[in-house]
Design brief:
The protein has one domain: Spore Coat Polysaccharide Biosynthesis Protein SpsA, Chain A. It is about 45% helix and about 15% strand.
Length: about 240
């Protein structure tokens, strides 16, 4: 069984060494991939000291593109499972074991869920709006729709690699694709550490941007389901 992990990284020289040291205790060196997304600091140089595969984007393309690059690379390595974690230590790499455990049970897409009581109020409110809207429109009972610690099997990777969206809609977009393609989805509780709190007006823009995305995709999904049901009834 081959398990790969992707660390999309942008200007993470402060944390990348610590993250990779932890990852090396859990994952085989040949399946740890850092995608340096056009960093302007020493992220690339530091990462190269610890792992064999550090893929560099010449310019910053965004987290989603970094993840796509990592997925394509690991698919060529014929991995069975892929896990994505942050390079800034927001999530403890050890938590990846929980994700992997669910994948081994037969789940195809696994997302962590955070303890929102430990999250800054501003972020908590935004996530409540996203989660509530998402669950209503997609008929789900998910505890978290925007957690950055996720894992999926090879089949899911092939589906996700060319369909995910960038920015803060990355995580809900992966969930939506998984729902549409009827992948087996589960969630596990994970710890999270917030080192940065979004500025007020930027936070509002992010919340509204993600909400609009969920509403647009969710309404389209519901309309499609209704039309499909009606067509079946008529036929």
């Amino acid at each position: 069984m081959k398990v790969g992990i992707i660390f999309p990284a942008y200007n993470e020289e402060k944390y990348i060494a610590k993250v990779l040291k932890k990852a090396l205790k859990i994952f085989k060196k040949d399946y740890i991939v850092v995608v340096d997304d056009g960093s302007k600091d020493r992220t690339y140089e530091i990462a190269k000291k610890y792992v064999k595969y550090v893929i560099r984007h010449e310019r910053n393309k965004g987290k989603a593109e970094a993840i796509k690059t990592g997925i394509k690379f690991l698919l060529r390595k014929n991995v069975d499972y892929i896990i994505i974690s942050d390079a800034d230590m927001q999530y403890d790499v050890k938590e990846a074991k929980k994700i992997l455990k669910e994948l081994k049970k037969g789940m195809q897409f696994v997302m962590g869920y955070r303890d929102f009581s430990k999250i800054p109020l501003r972020h908590r409110l935004g996530n409540f709006v996203w989660r509530t809207t998402f669950n209503f429109l997609f008929s789900q009972r998910l505890r978290d729709t925007n957690c950055g610690l996720v894992g999926f099997d090879r089949e899911a990777a092939k589906i996700l690699v060319n369909k995910i969206y960038g920015g803060y809609i990355l995580e809900p977009s992966m969930l939506i694709i998984s729902i549409i393609y009827r992948l087996r989805i589960s969630q596990v509780k994970v710890n999270v550490v917030y080192r940065k709190i979004s500025k007020f007006f930027r936070g509002i823009r992010v919340v509204l941007g993600v909400l609009i995305f969920i509403l647009r995709k969710g309404l389209k999904y519901r309309i499609f389901k209704i039309l499909k049901k009606e067509i079946k009834r008529i036929l």
